[in-house]
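Supplementary notes for students who missed Thursday's class. We covered one full example, reproduced here. Read the sequence, then the structure, then the short commentary at the end.
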Amino acid sequence: MNTQHIGFIGGGNMAGSLIGGLVSSGYPANKITVADLDAEKLAHLSDTFGVNVEQDASVLALDVDILVLAVKPQHMQVATEAVRQAVQQKKPVVVSIAAGIRIEVLRRWVGGDLPIVRCMPNTPALVKTAATGLFANEQVSENQKDQVESLLGAVGVTVWVNAESELDVVTALSGSGPAYFFMMMEALEAAAVNAGLDPQTAQLLTQETALGAAKMALASSESTAVLRQRVTSPGGTTERALGVMNERGLANIFQEALLAAKDRSIELSDELGGK
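Structure (token representation):
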């Protein structure tokens, strides 16, 4: 991406992950500025990555081409209204990585006639394996889309959705998804320990098996259903285990869980937007 000046309002873990991904990919640190009220966070980011820091977000907003809103959802209204005048003067691309804040609400807080992109990255951004869904309003140009995609692509894969409402599904799938896999891994570890393995061995084998399965799925052009069938020999151990999961309705559990998370995402958006 072109060396646009990127500004972050908020210097927490997700902002730090994005900044680390950008810098490690060769993006010039002097083209990145972070604003946060926490001086310790700013000092850490400056020392670690060599980026510029600023405690006054309005000063930052007057000088950047891409403005990343990386504060917690419950703090977003105060943060955006504080920089409204500066943003309206500079007109940067506004990128929100806060869950649940719809574009119409952001426009109300920060002002209209702005290119705005909503993103839903997930916590594996901390290890540069994020899966991020993005949606842009009509004011975002194709060139600006490329710039935002490169920004989020510094920490993983990105996918554009066609409707903002799809971000509720993205939130339920990849946003909350790491916790689903952690729960499955936790259950597998416990089962293996109960079956006779020591905890360290159970943990290592579980982690490596999960990693290996994910890598195989990414490397293959086949569907996960086909990959599952290939490791399920008739009459074998895998078939027996999968039979138990099917009997217990595992697919239905995931269906219900995903829809519950999606519904909660919609509820949170309504609650946050009503403030």
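Commentary. Residues 186 and 203 are 8 Å apart (CA to CA). Residues 250-273 form the longest helix (24 residues). If anything here is unclear, bring it to office hours.
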